[in-house]
Amino acid sequence: MTKTETAAADVLDIDRIRRDFPMLSSVMNGHGLVYLDNAATTQKPSAVIDRMAAFLRHEYATIHRGVYTFSQLSTAECDTVREKCRRFLNAGRASEIIFVRGATEAVNLVAAGFGRKFLKKGDEILISQIEHHSNIVPWQRLCEEKGLTLKIIPVNDRGEIILEEFQKLLGARTYLVSIGHVSNALGTVNPIREMTRLAHHAGAWVLVDGAQGAPHFRVDVREIDCDFYCFSGHKIYGPTGIGVLYAKAKHLDAMDPYQTGGDMIESVTFEKTTYAKPPAKFEAGTPAIAEIIGLGAALDYLGKLDWEAVTAHERELLTHATEKLSAIPGLKIIGTAAEKASLVSFSLEGIHPHDIGTVLDQEGIAIRAGHHCAQPTMKRFGVPATARASFAFYNTKEEIDKLARGVKKVLEIFK
Fold it and tell me: Domain locations in the chain?
């Protein structure tokens, strides 16, 4: 680690931060919890838990539908959270922020509202070889419905997108490139700025699945210049059931709504319905109000952190984990890209990842074991599944040392 990284990491008071997260003091199977499944979902700070509880106890009311005081206050609070999301992504305007259930719904919204309207038979969609199923299946379905072609951007043996091959795939019929910011299975950070530039040069739109990017990096959608960016609240220390789709205003104006119903209309008769302007156009029905409030509290919490220090600390955790795990006989790290988020996916020769996860569970260590909703990624690297340890800014080197000792115990049991 460089002196700059050391200085930045020192800014974070990890002990204090850990006290902000009640779950981290839990006990699992007689051991203090070592939570290393942050790529699946993150723990919640007391600030989020308490804010949601206070809202539900003392402030709860529906939004956009009442003239009474609490309804007006709830509406104003949700509007404030939308503005916080705009700032979090550096979007141009708050109306470019759509509340969704999560990144999965966001991708499906774009596939339905944009894809079904604009793409024609023979058009092409490009995705990479290392996508989450949520960024594969919606496009497969759309291709089947409309006679489109789904093309796959290959990766090298390190898990990095081969930009030269990507450029070759871009063509006159390429309408959309949908790419993960960070691979959930490997940790690879994809070159989304360069890919967006190349795609736009070819006349294609770009969606970035930021489910694994937003928790680790400062995101600037205007700098990236992507057409769409999405993330899930529960992966950035907020509640489940809430997420965000950013879309350029011109696209939202042109797209059809994904769902229809109450609150997304301007007028309804039995002959015709006219839709409201974005963002309401894409937010049919009563939204997840308490979850929106919780997302706002999570963004407030993150806004108080030094993100240079967060990045440096997570990089140090990744380096430490890579060194510790690489030294274990028979262990192979899957995904060794030069640019990675704080995630290590690995296999042990002759031992199924589920067995690794089960033994670690008995040691109080929570990891993910399986195909990580990324079966094509597993196929690319010739494994049925991996064990995955994923780190957040509240994790420590000592926890990684416990992980390494736990993996060695797995070897003792199965060898």
Answer: 3-39+306-413, 50-303
Is there a contact between 151 and 162 (Cβ–Cβ < 8 Å)? no
Give the pLDDT confidence score for residue 10 in this predicted structure. 62
pLDDT of residue 5: 45
Residue 349, exposed/middle/buried by CB under 10 A (0-12, 13-18, 19+)? exposed
* The domain defined by 3-39+306-413 carries CATH number 3.90.1150.10: yes
CA 304 vs. chain centroid, Å, equals 21
**266, 280, 407 from 283: Cα distances, Å:** 13, 5, 46
Q: In angstroms, rounded to a whole number, what is the distance separating the alpha carbons of residues 123 and 143?
A: 9
Q: 62: Cβ–Cβ under 8 A, 6 or more apart, which residues?
A: 71, 74, 286, 289
In the chain, DSSP finds a helix count (H) and a strand count (E) of 16, 17
Which of 337, 338, 360, 336 lies closest to 346 in space, CA to CA? Answer: 336
Task: Please compute, for residue 187, the number of CA atoms within 13 A of its CA located in the half-sphere on the CB side.
Answer: 30
Kindly give the parts of the chain with pLDDT less than 70. 1-10
Answer for the pair 337, 158: CB distance below 8 angstroms, yes or no: yes
pLDDT at position 405: 99
Query: Measured between alpha carbons, how far is 104 from 265 in angstroms, rounded to an integer?
Result: 24
Decide: 173 and 149 in contact? Cβ < 8 Å.
yes
- pLDDT in the model for residue 1: 46
CATH 3.50.50.60 fits 50-303, yes or no: no
Write the DSSP assignment of 142-168 as a string of letters: HHHHHT-EEEEE-B-TTS-B-HHHHHH
16-57 tens-digit pLDDT: 999 999 999 999 999 999 999 999 999 999 999 999 999 999
Q: Given 85, 143, 226, 373, which residue is catalytic?
A: 373
Q: Is 78 a catalytic residue?
A: no
